[in-house]
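#dry-run=false #mode=assembly
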Amino acid sequence: MTAIRDWKIFKDNLMTQNPVFVQVLGICSTLAVTNVLKNTLVMCLGLIFVTTLSNLSLSLLRAWIPSRIRMMVEVLIIASLVIIVDICLKAYYPDISRQLGPYVGLIITNCIIMGRAEAVALTSPPRTALIDGISSGIGYSYVLLLIACCRELLGTGGIWGVRLLGQSWINWSIMVMAPGGFFVLAVFIWIVKGWIMRPVTGKAGA
Amino acid sequence: MQELGFFAILFSAVFTNNILLTNYLGMCSFLGCSREIKTALGLGSAVIFVTAATSVLNWLVYACILVPLDLVYLRFIVFIVVIAAFVQLVEMIIERVSEPLYNALGIFLPLITVNCAILGVSLFMVIREYTFKQAAAYGLGSGVGWALAIIAMAGIRQRLTQRSRIPRGLEGPGIALIIAGTMALAFMGFNGMINLS
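#status=ok
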């Protein structure tokens, strides 16, 4: 029974309840680095790490956290996890760490992590919280990675630094600049809402 | 790199390097609270005030406490705590001092603690190694830039929902992102006047 419920949480967080499509939450810190796929991947891995562990530890501690200062406790736990990510990045991938600059630190204020902590971690047992953390992290990451693929391909004619489109391709340099991110995300939301989500809402209405 | 003055940084933080339109910071509340001009005005002014004050506070904490004690790696925790504490304090003071101001700004203040733009300003200012005066200018400018963007956005959205037919899938956040993209394009026209970073 629990396995089925876990799987349902996992699937919902990836598709129908995906935080990026449903509410456009949490894109602040990561959208900015989606012009290069490699940086996006690193940010997303960091984010999955933080969501998972913050959900787990908050759920384990939930009996001892007074509700008046729970925001403070959440922020402190999340911030400590982000510091771990930052130090690891600096030690093993100094180049990427320099390129990402302040954005690693901004994982702290990513609304998804706080949202998950408030909605799930403080009310459910550790197992559910852990699965919810992993799946919402992954659900968020694959959208961002798709956006990064689009932007890098159109903006530089290749992915991961490898040129895929022929010599005659003219780079859309707007894609690697700020407006490109807004437009690509808007188109993604349009596609998902208008095409994939419609059968779901139709069924609910009938 | 030549040293940039107070007004140069102020100008560039508002226009050429607008924190929202070039760095995507503070998107959540930007998309959530930009349906009406009144809300946007309230949130915008709260952000201006908090960003300007916390960037100065965080600069002082960073330069006077963290660097001498070699605790720079703790900056994320310290900055977010300073911001949260400051917001709480302001909320309490406003509640005591002025009822109308509290009604106008009060509901937005808790939202601000988790606004990425505020923490972002503090982190950028540390990475770019600003002096005290530059940090103050950058904090003020970023707040004003953010407020400008959200107020303009609210104005456009209010008109848009009255006058035009939006495709179903684009309603809500979709169209808001397209407007934001167009605004970012427009703001790119300021590029090259002054360059930060």
